[in-house]
Amino acid sequence: MKKILLCGVLASALFTACSKEGKLKTLRYEMSCNNCFVVYYGQNEEQFSEFDQEGNWSKELTVEPGFVALIVAKNMDSQPAQVTARIKVDGEIVKENTSHCPINGTVLVTDTIQ
After folding, report:
1. Where do the structural domains in the chain lie, given as residue ranges?
2. Prediction pTM value
3. What is the Cα–Cα distance from 49 to 106, expressed in whole angstroms?
4. Out of 2.40.160.60, 2.60.260.20, 3.90.1300.10, 2.60.40.2880, which CATH number does the structure's domain 24-112 have?
5. Bridge partners of 98?
6. pLDDT digits 0-9 by tens, 55-71
7. pLDDT tens across 72-109, in order?
């Protein structure tokens, strides 16, 4: 009887663990801009910042539903430039913002992951 109970508990634990993993989402932040400063929320909603000179920056995280995604991108070049930031969940764009503002154009994109 103890073996049957133990097997039931283990099966239940494995099923619960698998069902939690099924809820995880792949979050991808993307930013298009040369010489841009980017700020974003990482896991546990910690704030990170980076400077990118290449033009196409991205960061990918695995998050649970309810995670608040946030990305801010700012043109740091001395010339006007287009700045685009987007949030993708499981490969699909859920939010995007573009600024064609002159020098120091800034965009903000935020979404609560469903």
Report:
1. 24-112
2. 0.75
3. 14
4. 2.60.40.2880
5. 84
6. 889 999 999 999 999 99
7. 999 888 778 889 999 999 999 999 999 877 666 788 88
